[in-house]
Predict the structure.
Amino acid sequence: MLDQTTLEKAEQIIQTNYFGTKNMIKAMVPLMRPSEPGARIVNVSSKLGRLSGRRNRIENAEERKKLENEELLSEELIDEVMETFLKEVKDGSWKEGGWPNVFTDYSLSKLAVNTYTRLMAREFASRPEGQKIYINCYCPGWVRTAMTSWAGHISIEDGADTAVWLALLPDQFVTGKFFSERREINF
Ligand SMILES: NC(=O)c1ccc[n+]([C@@H]2O[C@H](COP(=O)([O-])OP(=O)(O)OC[C@H]3O[C@@H](n4cnc5c(N)ncnc54)[C@H](OP(=O)(O)O)[C@@H]3O)[C@@H](O)[C@H]2O)c1
């Protein structure tokens, strides 16, 4: 029998973290003003959403490869992966689906944010000089917020540090990358 709570929770997490981020970017881009150093978008993600993570990745290599291939990446493809997962949650088959095994819905929502960051970086690259937008994502670490029931070991200020750094990077036109503690990490 369908566990309504599980489905509602998965839908809410994916809607908020992935579709919410995507809709916000789409709403904001036309409002971003051209600037010499380029406008910046920083998506808050998580290492739990790594494509290549050894312990918490999509186990199905074919599905993983589709999302890894930057040239083939599309919004439809990312949406389709989210919809396939939600469909499996609905019919109860998701546990055999080879999805990330820790915080599965949350991890997938962040994996979608990461891949969408890469996709948008590719799209923004064709914007003319002076109207560039640089987009990156980062993991804040385990931060003392409501999400961790205040049990994280990083202060809110330190958790925000890499985001602020990425937003203000002068003369470094880095885009489509994933960061943690001011360092680039693998997707
Ligand atoms: N804390 C960590 O250790 C950690 C680790 C990795 C990544 N992150 C990421 O960091 C970001 C911030 O998390 P946090 O730790 O600050 O979590 P948090 O303390 O739980 O705060 C989450 C914020 O998101 C808002 N929110 C939730 N659902 C929303 C919705 N549907 N529409 C609009 N706003 C909504 C909440 O608003 P209300 O207060 O009004 O409910 C709250 O302000 C998240 O993207 C999280 O995934 C956090």
